[in-house]
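Open question from group meeting: does this chain pack into something compact, or does most of it stay loose? Before anyone orders reagents, we agreed to write out a predicted structure and look at it together. Recording both the input and the output here so the notebook holds the full record.
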Amino acid sequence: MLKGKTALVTGSTSGIGLAIARAMAKDGANLVINGFGDAAAIEKERAGLETEFGIKAIYSGADMTKPAEIDAMIAQAEKQFGSVDVLVNNAGIQHVANIEDFPTDKWDAIIAINLSSSFHTIRAAIPGMKKRKWGRIINIASAHGLVASGQKVAYVAAKHGLVGLTKTVAIEAANNGVTCNAICPGWVLTPLVQKQIEARAKASGQSIEEAKVALLSEKQPMHQFTTPENIGALAVFLASDAAQSITGSAYSIDGGWVAQ
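Structure tokens returned:
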């Protein structure tokens, strides 16, 4: 479905972003990947995407806190491929603390990366999408874009803001062939979460499976993690022609978290 299109995925050198990039490449899209990490590992991943899926992939090390670097990344993609057809805003960071103890620099960084960077990428990419009368913008929000939890004031504020940004862009671009939607995952099994489960099991004397269920059941009726690949598959659907009239929506993929 995406053959000949170009997908730019921020925060895509690992985790959810990489899974989304892989899903886009599997569907035929050329890629711009972005994120931090070991240069050799990133180059190996970039080259591997080209070999495995028969597409072209480039890497941008743009810092998502710096609007000028974001502008340069979009310009680089358009120069290399002629267009940015699918934009996936995935870059994000987290910090946990009570609001009275929340460091102001952490607040500023989380808002910059989790929310403002999406404004900057969309602002730079949407003129080309409107001109070509085709574009898909997918913002990776969170269950925390729809409901709140304690000790995550900046993350919850940013993700709620990202859902609002999604709706506004959808309205503005509704008749330009451009859609904008948000994906709102619940618990996703990443290496970091796996470490939390293992630590919890060790501290409580539970088995890994018992610790997993205990963690999930704090928020989700379904005792099953969402996988990065699940999110990638949903992103590909939202980028497809089958989703051409789906816009301004926030798709929960959260095991029933926000249904409660």
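Observations to bring back to the group:
DSSP finds eight helices and seven strands in the chain.
Helices lie at 15-26, 39-53, 67-81, 104-132, 153-172, 191-204, 208-217, 228-239.
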